[in-house]
Amino acid sequence: MTVVSVEQQVSSRVLGPLELEVDGTPVQLKGVQVRRLVAGLLLAGDCPMADEELTALVWPAGRPANAQKGLRALVWRLRTALGTAGERLERTPSGYRLRVPANDTDHHRFAALASDGLSKQTPSNQDPAGAMQHLETALGLWRGEPWQDLADSAVVVGARARLLELHELALEEVEAARLAAGNPQVAVRSLTHLVADSPYRERRWELLARAWLEVGQPERARAELRRYRVLLADQLGLDPGPTLAALERRLAVQQSGQPAWRWR
């Protein structure tokens, strides 16, 4: 009789507090160093992480006298916590690797969904409904800043910054898709909060002005663009970029009595 071995599903979440599960059951990660070990291995993805790199992540303030022995002890504790899925934590000639498929990690799923959603917003591929679906699903995975257990280092800061920027873009472009789909009232409410959260992201002011235009309030659109122009001048000594400058000119023409225009 042939025995078929079914490998257990291991999944992870790093967009917010670190979570690790085996077949849907949370793994108890006790201790700061164990959590850093897991986070570092997940950061490396499918590539093994060398002992030296791991110890730097586990003990960012300075490695203990016997870091290698300490690392082996942490690996043993993690394997024990994983139980029958402990074989997913592998020792290779290049270092340790925690085998978690990309589809079972929230940061990879988020990046893939967000990228797919953004691709449906390009001039050659206008699919507002598809963009909204992908971007809203991606944003639903976001629980907070990525890699919270890891201290700043060149590798960690870079990985965190890429995800944070993709999150900001997803927040903006889901509202652009909402506008294109003909739902400006919801977009106005969301974008009002978004410009308050990140007042120097110009795309948000552009979308907010266009949303006010779509609900038939061009005066509010002009007021928002003036507010952004004053903010830039006072805080940074800058003028709005060419996209907003062009939008301001079009609104000025409309205000002077020329025929109204729609941006879509």
UniProtKB/TrEMBL annotation:
Q: What is the lineage of its organism?
A: Bacteria, Bacillati, Actinomycetota, Actinomycetes, Propionibacteriales
Q: Name one GO molecular function term.
A: DNA binding
Question: What single Pfam family name could you report for this chain, choosing any that match?
Answer: BTAD
Report what the protein is called. Answer: Bacterial transcriptional activator domain-containing protein
> Sorted alphabetically, which PANTHER family does this protein's record hold?
TRANSCRIPTIONAL REGULATOR REDD, TRANSCRIPTIONAL REGULATOR REDD-RELATED
Tell me the ranges covered by the Bacterial transcriptional activator domain, including all copies.
105-252
Q: Would the keyword Transcription regulation be found if you checked this record's keyword annotation? A: yes
GO process annotations (BP):
regulation of DNA-templated transcription
Q: Which UniProt keywords apply?
A: Transcription, Transcription regulation
Give the domain of life.
Bacteria
